[in-house]
Amino acid sequence: MISLKDVLYDIRLDKKHYSIFSLKFIYLVFYRIDYYLRHSYLKYIRFYIFTTILKKFFEYILQIEIANYTPNLYVKGGLFLNHNCKIVYANIGYNCIINAFVNIGATGRRNKKTNSKYPKIGNNCIIGANATILGPIEIGDNVIIGGVQL
Length: 150
Fold this sequence. Notes:
Elements: H1 4-14, H2 23-38, H3 45-62, E1 65-67, E2 80-81, E3 86-88, E4 91-92, E5 97-98, E6 103-105, E7 120-121, E8 126-127, E9 132-134, E10 138-139, E11 144-145
Parallel strand pairs: 1-3, 2-5, 3-6, 4-7, 5-8, 6-9, 7-10, 8-11
Helix pairs in contact: 1-2, 2-3
């Protein structure tokens, strides 16, 4: 489970890519708080509903969606999102850059070695525009994925 200290550290890492008043930075803050409240105790249920509503509002405006609802999947700090990204069920490491129209998600197929059906992206990765990463694939650290790649 992620702690509040980890969430605050990730927010500090996100701040290096955006200004504090940027809508994408505010969206990432709400994503991290929403993720923490979703996987913490139920005493935060009132705040959880508020942050979920705000996160959905920013998803509508920015056309960016991060939908990680399982507790072992997390998008770490230093993430730079371009417009129109969709991340559904993925582990993403520190300081990744995700360009426009990228889809990252799971399939029904499982990896036999790790018994996981989610993609795992390492630290310091750059994913080019219109790339699609689906299924149980592991991408190492410091990798550049070109545009329009599957």
